[in-house]
Prior knowledge:
Elements lengths: L24 E11 L5 E14 L4 E10 L2 E12 L4 E8 L7 E8 L4 E6 L14 E10 L2 E9 L7 E12 L1
Antiparallel strand pairs: 1-2, 1-10, 2-3, 3-4, 4-5, 5-6, 6-7, 7-8, 8-9, 9-10
Amino acid sequence: MLIAPPVQTLPAPDPHMHDLAWFLGEWSIFSRTFQAEPAGTWAEETIFAVHSAELGGNMIWEHFFGPLQGAAYEAWSLRKYDARKDRWFQRWVDSVPGGPVANWTGTWDAGTRSFTGYAEGFLDSEYRIKGERAMREIFDRITPDSFAWRMETTSDGGKTWTVTWTLDYTRVAR
Protein backbone atom coordinates (compact mmCIF):
# COMPACT_ATOMS: atom_id res chain seq x y z
CA MET A 1 0.00 0.00 0.00
CA LEU A 2 1.37 3.42 -0.97
CA ILE A 3 1.03 6.00 1.76
CA ALA A 4 0.79 9.59 0.59
CA PRO A 5 3.20 11.97 2.31
CA PRO A 6 1.64 14.66 4.49
CA VAL A 7 1.02 17.97 2.80
CA GLN A 8 3.95 20.17 3.67
CA THR A 9 5.81 23.22 2.50
CA LEU A 10 9.42 22.48 1.67
CA PRO A 11 12.11 25.09 2.31
CA ALA A 12 12.72 27.54 -0.50
CA PRO A 13 15.72 26.57 -2.63
CA ASP A 14 19.01 28.39 -2.32
CA PRO A 15 19.03 31.22 -4.92
CA HIS A 16 22.01 29.52 -6.63
CA MET A 17 19.72 26.67 -7.67
CA HIS A 18 18.42 29.11 -10.29
CA ASP A 19 21.92 29.34 -11.85
CA LEU A 20 21.26 26.07 -13.68
CA ALA A 21 17.64 26.79 -14.70
CA TRP A 22 18.77 26.62 -18.34
CA PHE A 23 19.57 22.91 -17.70
CA LEU A 24 15.93 21.96 -17.04
CA GLY A 25 13.84 20.36 -19.77
CA GLU A 26 13.88 17.52 -22.28
CA TRP A 27 16.82 17.24 -24.66
CA SER A 28 17.93 15.48 -27.82
CA ILE A 29 21.72 15.15 -27.73
CA PHE A 30 24.33 14.62 -30.45
CA SER A 31 27.04 12.55 -28.72
CA ARG A 32 30.63 12.09 -29.88
CA THR A 33 32.92 9.75 -27.89
CA PHE A 34 36.60 9.35 -28.66
CA GLN A 35 37.60 5.85 -29.77
CA ALA A 36 41.02 4.31 -29.16
CA GLU A 37 40.45 1.84 -32.04
CA PRO A 38 40.59 2.68 -34.82
CA ALA A 39 42.91 5.37 -33.53
CA GLY A 40 41.60 8.92 -33.48
CA THR A 41 38.01 8.17 -34.51
CA TRP A 42 34.78 9.27 -32.85
CA ALA A 43 31.57 7.30 -32.27
CA GLU A 44 28.58 9.51 -33.10
CA GLU A 45 25.08 8.81 -31.75
CA THR A 46 21.87 10.53 -30.72
CA ILE A 47 20.90 10.15 -27.08
CA PHE A 48 18.35 11.85 -24.82
CA ALA A 49 18.03 13.45 -21.39
CA VAL A 50 15.36 14.83 -19.10
CA HIS A 51 16.35 17.28 -16.34
CA SER A 52 13.81 18.34 -13.73
CA ALA A 53 13.74 20.38 -10.53
CA GLU A 54 12.71 18.18 -7.60
CA LEU A 55 12.32 18.45 -3.81
CA GLY A 56 10.70 21.86 -4.11
CA GLY A 57 13.46 23.11 -6.43
CA ASN A 58 16.23 22.04 -4.03
CA MET A 59 17.68 19.41 -6.38
CA ILE A 60 18.03 18.75 -10.12
CA TRP A 61 17.33 15.19 -11.26
CA GLU A 62 18.77 14.03 -14.58
CA HIS A 63 17.72 10.97 -16.58
CA PHE A 64 20.19 10.26 -19.41
CA PHE A 65 19.49 7.43 -21.90
CA GLY A 66 20.14 6.02 -25.35
CA PRO A 67 22.95 4.26 -27.15
CA LEU A 68 26.51 4.92 -25.99
CA GLN A 69 29.30 3.53 -28.13
CA GLY A 70 26.74 1.22 -29.73
CA ALA A 71 25.35 -0.27 -26.50
CA ALA A 72 22.19 0.50 -24.54
CA TYR A 73 22.95 3.00 -21.77
CA GLU A 74 21.03 4.73 -19.01
CA ALA A 75 22.11 6.96 -16.13
CA TRP A 76 20.60 9.02 -13.32
CA SER A 77 22.13 12.03 -11.68
CA LEU A 78 21.34 14.28 -8.73
CA ARG A 79 22.72 17.85 -8.63
CA LYS A 80 22.49 20.21 -5.69
CA TYR A 81 24.08 23.48 -4.69
CA ASP A 82 25.73 23.47 -1.22
CA ALA A 83 25.82 27.04 0.13
CA ARG A 84 28.20 26.05 2.96
CA LYS A 85 30.84 25.03 0.42
CA ASP A 86 29.79 27.47 -2.34
CA ARG A 87 29.84 24.58 -4.83
CA TRP A 88 27.61 22.31 -6.81
CA PHE A 89 27.69 18.57 -6.11
CA GLN A 90 26.57 15.77 -8.38
CA ARG A 91 26.10 12.03 -7.86
CA TRP A 92 25.98 9.97 -11.06
CA VAL A 93 25.03 6.32 -11.39
CA ASP A 94 24.65 4.40 -14.63
CA SER A 95 23.79 1.03 -16.12
CA VAL A 96 27.40 -0.12 -16.63
CA PRO A 97 27.68 -3.43 -14.72
CA GLY A 98 29.96 -3.01 -11.70
CA GLY A 99 30.47 0.68 -12.42
CA PRO A 100 30.95 3.06 -9.49
CA VAL A 101 28.79 5.93 -8.34
CA ALA A 102 30.63 8.96 -9.73
CA ASN A 103 30.92 12.03 -7.51
CA TRP A 104 31.48 15.42 -9.09
CA THR A 105 31.83 18.97 -7.80
CA GLY A 106 31.90 22.23 -9.67
CA THR A 107 31.15 25.91 -9.97
CA TRP A 108 28.96 28.13 -12.12
CA ASP A 109 30.57 31.21 -13.67
CA ALA A 110 27.83 33.78 -14.29
CA GLY A 111 30.21 36.05 -16.22
CA THR A 112 31.04 33.48 -18.89
CA ARG A 113 27.78 31.55 -18.45
CA SER A 114 29.68 28.29 -18.07
CA PHE A 115 29.90 25.47 -15.55
CA THR A 116 33.06 23.50 -14.78
CA GLY A 117 32.96 20.35 -12.68
CA TYR A 118 35.64 17.89 -11.61
CA ALA A 119 35.51 14.20 -10.69
CA GLU A 120 36.01 14.35 -6.90
CA GLY A 121 38.34 11.34 -6.80
CA PHE A 122 41.07 13.46 -8.40
CA LEU A 123 40.72 16.43 -6.01
CA ASP A 124 42.16 17.26 -2.60
CA SER A 125 40.13 18.68 0.30
CA GLU A 126 40.47 22.21 -1.16
CA TYR A 127 39.06 21.03 -4.53
CA ARG A 128 42.42 21.29 -6.30
CA ILE A 129 43.79 18.58 -8.59
CA LYS A 130 45.86 16.36 -6.29
CA GLY A 131 47.92 14.40 -8.83
CA GLU A 132 48.76 14.22 -12.50
CA ARG A 133 45.45 12.71 -13.65
CA ALA A 134 42.02 14.33 -13.50
CA MET A 135 38.69 14.53 -15.34
CA ARG A 136 36.47 17.54 -15.78
CA GLU A 137 33.20 18.47 -17.44
CA ILE A 138 32.45 21.84 -19.00
CA PHE A 139 29.04 23.21 -19.95
CA ASP A 140 29.12 26.26 -22.23
CA ARG A 141 27.59 27.87 -25.37
CA ILE A 142 24.35 28.09 -23.39
CA THR A 143 21.28 29.50 -25.15
CA PRO A 144 17.58 29.15 -24.26
CA ASP A 145 17.32 26.05 -26.50
CA SER A 146 20.79 24.53 -26.61
CA PHE A 147 24.08 24.07 -24.82
CA ALA A 148 27.31 22.13 -25.21
CA TRP A 149 29.06 19.78 -22.80
CA ARG A 150 32.46 18.18 -22.99
CA MET A 151 34.49 15.74 -20.93
CA GLU A 152 38.22 16.39 -20.71
CA THR A 153 41.10 14.47 -19.15
CA THR A 154 44.57 15.54 -18.09
CA SER A 155 47.68 13.54 -17.30
CA ASP A 156 49.89 16.51 -16.40
CA GLY A 157 48.07 17.96 -13.40
CA GLY A 158 45.84 20.26 -15.46
CA LYS A 159 48.43 21.99 -17.67
CA THR A 160 46.82 20.49 -20.78
CA TRP A 161 43.42 18.87 -21.33
CA THR A 162 42.23 16.37 -23.96
CA VAL A 163 38.58 16.22 -25.05
CA THR A 164 37.23 12.64 -24.86
CA TRP A 165 33.45 13.12 -25.16
CA THR A 166 31.21 15.93 -26.44
CA LEU A 167 27.46 16.43 -26.17
CA ASP A 168 25.48 19.02 -28.12
CA TYR A 169 22.07 19.46 -26.48
CA THR A 170 18.99 20.67 -28.40
CA ARG A 171 15.82 21.37 -26.44
CA VAL A 172 12.82 19.16 -27.23
CA ALA A 173 10.51 20.52 -24.48
CA ARG A 174 10.65 22.72 -21.36
